[in-house]
Specification:
It holds the Pfam family CxxCxxCC. This protein is of the alpha+beta class. It is built from 2 helices and 5 strands, in the order E-E-E-E-E-H-H. It starts with 18 loop residues before the first strand and ends in a 6-residue tail after the last helix. The structure holds iron/sulfur cluster (2 copies).
Length: 109
Amino acid sequence: MREDPCTRCGACCAAFRVDFHRSELASATPGGVPDALTVPVTATLVRMRGTDAAPARCVALAGEIGRSVRCTIYAGRPSPCQEFAPYAPLGIGDDACARARRRQGLAPL
Ligand code: SF4
Ligand code: SF4
């Protein structure tokens, strides 16, 4: 079976702000995103901690970008992450995926 290229990348977790509705938080939905890993943005929106830092890096990302990475909340990751480049694990990227990879010096999928 072909290896999932995302497990050796992680560039998108260190490129974009990850904002989502409070209803996805663990305090609102069992199995949701741990509240402590987020910061408030508006009354209804929260952001993954670290994704608006410079340089950006989501606090939930473990490992070394471009080598070996893992989302530590993968099963309960927020919707923007679930929807991002859905075919990348199959080796088919899109524009946003390519942009994130380029910033890390990685070639597009
Ligand atoms: S979706 Fe693209 S940028 Fe994100 S981890 Fe996978 S290959 Fe890397
Ligand atoms: S929650 Fe997981 S998939 Fe989403 S940006 Fe953070 S490390 Fe990446």
